[in-house]
User: Fold these one by one.
Assistant:
Number 1:
Amino acid sequence: MSKTLIIGAGGVGHVVANKCASVPDVFTDLLLASRTKSKCDAIAKDVKARQGVDIGTARIDADQVPELVRLMQDFKPDLVIHVALPYQDLTIMDACLEAGVHYLDTANYEPVDEAKFEYSWQWAYRDRFEEAGLMALLGSGFDPGVTGVFTAHAQKHHFDEMRYLDIVDCNAGDHSAAFATNFNPEINIREITQKGRYWEDGRWHEVEPLSAHKPISYPGIGPRESYLLYHEELESLAKNFPSLRRARFWMTFSEEYIRHLDVLQRVGMTRIDPVRYEGVDIVPLQFLKAVLPAPASLAENYTGQTSIGCQIKGVKDGRDKTLYVYNNCDHAKTYEEVGAQAVSYTTGVPAMIGAKLMLTGAWKKPGVYNVEEFDPDPFMADLNRHGLPWHEEVDVPLPHEYD
Ligand code: NDP
């Protein structure tokens, strides 16, 4: 018997609600709450049709701690799965502490007025969660999330010492919109327009946004131009696996996407500071989000697949070894299964798995943790069981240069 509160009714919330409802022996009672209740109701209807399960819905402004606490005291959940926006991480963690509820999210905190994402704000909650006997699991999506579990799996089963990590993320899907983002446009564009950052020889190195790129070949897809980005899991992986001499993150973008982004940046549409327009303050990026397609709306007729994995070089039994562990996910198949595109699916399934492991006690420790700090085996087994099968290749040549 467990009660789970899901916050956020976007593309990811849609998948989380469906996947939790598909495991009724663990998730016995579900409540979906978000800013717009009609979106929760539409998801609840979809869950009923697909899974035959009734879930409750509620309206919540997750920026307001007292409102969150009231909802939690009323519903009395064991766990909150937070898949609204990273801006709400801290308010929801505060409310969880006040109401005595475990916490899980898929993206680290970002202040609204500064495009800066790092774990320090959430790691600062460690003592308070520990003292309250509560657990917070950070970044249980795909990247961050599965990429951390893949790295922990590599350390546990393949290497004595991991030295080089390249996370490679390809979306080779076609949704036929001229320009759209696969998850929340505001968060996505803030991430991509930042300077690229990677970890090497004990310190962070920076490059200009999207300036470092090369073709990387993805399984079942072929070569795609891939851009070095800063991605939040690099921070926790560099800390939790100190043998890594270098850790980088690469993501594919089409020429069309880069061209649109370039123009939007040049004309000021990606700015996050307010601009006065006819007596009202408007944040250009928030306005842009309002006119771009919602991520969930891309799902119908989306074709092609995603491929995300970890390419690792290190040492085992005194000799060099490489490992490539990855998952490919097909947009059309995820649409058929839960009515969502693969980027929402690859985030929502690991959120459900992390929650399942917490609720069943397989992963349970008071404090604030990243996914790679737990035994990867049950998570890896659940990926195969719940729609994200993984593959691994040992000692294949990897497309990177090493010292
Ligand atoms: P969407 O924009 O589709 O959905 C976000 C949802 O959050 C919307 O329903 C929105 O409500 C709701 N929301 C926003 N602000 C509030 C608030 N103050 N109170 C209550 N609800 C609010 O985004 P996605 O579903 O694509 O992404 C969800 C999260 O998943 C994001 O944090 C994103 O960063 C993360 N993510 C993580 C990935 C990973 O692999 N780790 C990959 C992809 C996404 P409304 O409908 O009213 O706007």
Number 2:
Amino acid sequence: MKDILERLEGARAQARLGGGERRIRAQHERGKLTARERIALLLDEGSFEEFDMYVQHRCADFGMQDNKIPGDGVITGYGTINGRAVFVFSKDFTVFGGSLSEAHAQKMIKIQDMALKMRAPIIGLFDAGGARIQEGVAALAGYGEVFARNVKASGVIPQISVIMGPCAGGDVYSPAMTDFIFMVRDTSYMFVTGPDVVKTVTNETVTSEELGGASVHTTKSSVADGAFDNDVEAMLQIRRLVDFLPANNIDGPPEWESFDEPERLEHSLDTLVPDNPNKPYDMKELILKVVDEGDFLEIQESYAKNIITGFARIEGRTVGIVANQPMVLAGVLDSDASRKAARFVRFCDAFSIPLVTFVDVPGFLPGTAQEYGGLIKHGAKLLFAFTQATVPMVTVITRKAYGGAYVVMASKHIGGDVNYAWPSAQIAVMGAKGAVEIIFRQDADDPDKLAARTKEYEDRFMSPFAAAERGYIDEVIMPHSTRRRIAKALAMLRSKEVDEPWRKHDNLPL
Ligand code: HXC
């Protein structure tokens, strides 16, 4: 028996070495942790239970029959994050560059199937070169099966991808179908084809960083939802994200003990909105002052900054925050902002996370660049997403709510459950100046008349009361009581239930 146990220990030790000391050293020299070190940081200490550590590939081509490494480039298993179950796979770059063989795919598929059966989140740590080139179509088939499971699990369990090395081919397409993608700055890249292929096909010379670094994907392409400075920070922030997320689409958001009084008043909010309606203020200040303990995890922080999306808590329960940001482009809705917010709203709705929307929006961004870029379709995505959402929705208009953007931003008309306005709110088709120039064009040469008309329009519409008179706003609230009002509304809305007619699925304008 002693021999058997020793043999087992030996086999385990060999598997734990992955691609060997030299490649582990190279991994560290590049500022990256190994696949196992990452898992150790991500999960609660000692909670990781590994599967399939002896699995090897079955490829016999290109000399591969003599080149087998137990584990075959991916470490899989389950564990806990702050006591809650998660499934995890972590690509081992030291083994064939983390590339995906048929056997490697079977390991991933096992974990994907288990996560779905257990209705628990799945986290993928990527550091891999795509399909194992020596395996050809067998590797492609493996990816197909992984992709199919990504789609099947979408909207049932949260799927999180962290890009922690150079990732290509299938190792970017599978993440693309998950709910969140995060990257590590300077050490991670995502591209469908790398710089060498780009050079051959298009004759473009581009570095990995320029083609698919964290800065590209968080600011330009919006493929990634955020970036972290190093592997350690990445793992800690993913733990923080998981704390906000429900385990699945049935359980509802997790409840953590809150030390922040729901009745807390925040008097500084009474002076947040400047007297001059064209002066910006920081919407993040409002968010941080309203949510539990000022804890706000922003999603897509560096992209389309004119809208803010992220997770926070009220009375210890997760809420999704969507807010216009007057500091950037006056908080206008453009194509990028609409797409960003629409995807966030749909995630929250799929996973029963209530939505809190703060509105200060002067409208949709005019211009050929926007219209040619499909603003109509992209704006419609956000309209569609809010309208379709059946989760509790609380909306607070702080200042401008003009035109179509007023309707889109979780207004009463498309399903807002509780809609509040601050006394500084202006709910109108457009700003007073623009409105008067159109409807009183005949007075264009008479500045006195124009001024009087503008004043008349301002008195009528540049307040929340025209909307409140019709019940479109449930109450005009004091800014300092915003947290208390939201907390009460969300508590009332906990039992919200909406029956939808059967359909196969909707036809969201993509
Ligand atoms: C087999 C691979 C591999 C792959 C890397 N390796 N990618 N082995 N199949 N796809 C191996 C290398 O041979 C090397 O082995 C080790 O991993 C490390 O790779 P390096 O190239 O030395 O590392 P680096 O310079 O950091 O470059 C990383 C990389 C590059 C950018 C990922 O290796 C690369 O471009 N790989 C190919 C990417 C690709 O085209 N994949 C196929 C995509 S098609 P040794 O023994 O020297 O350590 C695909 C289809 C899926 O995925 C379907 C999508 C819809």
